[in-house]
Amino acid sequence: MELAKKQAIVCGSTQGIGFSTAKLMAERGATITLVARNEEKLKKALTELASSNGQIHDYLVADFSQPEDLKKVLDVYVKAGNNPHILVNNTGGPKGGPIINADISEFTDTFNQHLVCNHILVQALYKGMQENGYGRIINVISTSVKQPLNGLGVSNTIRGAVANWSKTLANELGQFNITVNNVLPGATNTGRLTEIAKAKESKTGVSVDQFFTDMAELSPMQRIAEPIEVAEAICFLASPRASYINGINIPVDGGRTKSL
């Protein structure tokens, strides 16, 4: 129960990596605040969180396409006395496609959903972490910050901005025992990857099954990740064991990324 007496706010936590992270943190004793835009899915996810450590979990309804609304929700949350020790920034990526064809709005919308909303969350919560004497900010980004991925031009661009924002925060907040790190998932068995596969199928005729096979073959381990494997890395960074790890990128991709 290494996260006992810790409060965590986990974004994008009704499915995929975010949901697996919330479940794992709850199993390890943390009290969880789920964040997503669909209240029905949030209610369902809440029922699946462990509470053997006496936790009372809750959720926030927030649409990251509306940063100002997120800010209002967080203001109420913080004024109610919530001071989370852990923040997991996790947001689904934009649609794929060549960067040369991307509309300007795709960049501005994605920038708001990722970097701006991440920043709003940190600004709302870091003072509480400072008061707690314990803070962990983990950003779930992508291996594209090390090696841009073909066909994901907008995502490559904005993920890189988030990575550098994160490194800057790590330099500023470390003195308060607040660490800031990035987890970079490779191909992971989530709804997001299935959406990408279906989009490719409609454009190229490559089946979803073949897409997953091709993605698996890119990894030395010859398979894609399960969400729980990424969640394990996130939970480690959130734990007291990672107290001197700050300002880094951790790929969780089975070795697919070719650079160190």
Envelope shape: globular
- Uncertain spans, ≥5 residues at pLDDT below 50? none
The averaged pLDDT comes out at 95
Order of helices and strands: EHEHEHEHEHEHHHE
- Main pleated-sheet profile: 7 strands, parallel
Could you give the order of strands across the largest sheet? 3-2-1-4-5-6-7
Classify the secondary structure makeup into a structural class: alpha/beta
CATH superfamily: NAD(P)-binding Rossmann-like Domain
For the record, the count of structural domains works out to 1
Tally of separate helices: 8
CATH class: Alpha Beta
Q: What's the helical proportion of residues? A: 40-55%
Rg, Cα atoms, Å: 18 Å
| Record field, number of beta strands | 7
Oligomeric assembly: single chain
Name its key features.
single chain; 260 residues; alpha/beta; Rossmann fold; 8 helices; globular
If you had to describe this structure to a student in words, what would you say it looks like?
By secondary structure, the protein is an alpha/beta fold. The protein has one domain: Rossmann fold (3-Layer(aba) Sandwich). Helices cover 46% and strands 14% of the residues. The protein contains 8 helices and 7 strands. It has helices at 16-27, 39-46, 67-79, 104-132, 153-173, 191-204, 208-217, 227-238; strands spanning 7-11, 31-36, 58-61, 86-89, 135-140, 178-185, 249-252. A 7-stranded parallel sheet has the order 3-2-1-4-5-6-7, with helices on both faces. Strand 4 (86-89), helix 4 and strand 5 form a beta-alpha-beta unit. Helix 4 runs parallel beside helix 5 (153-173).
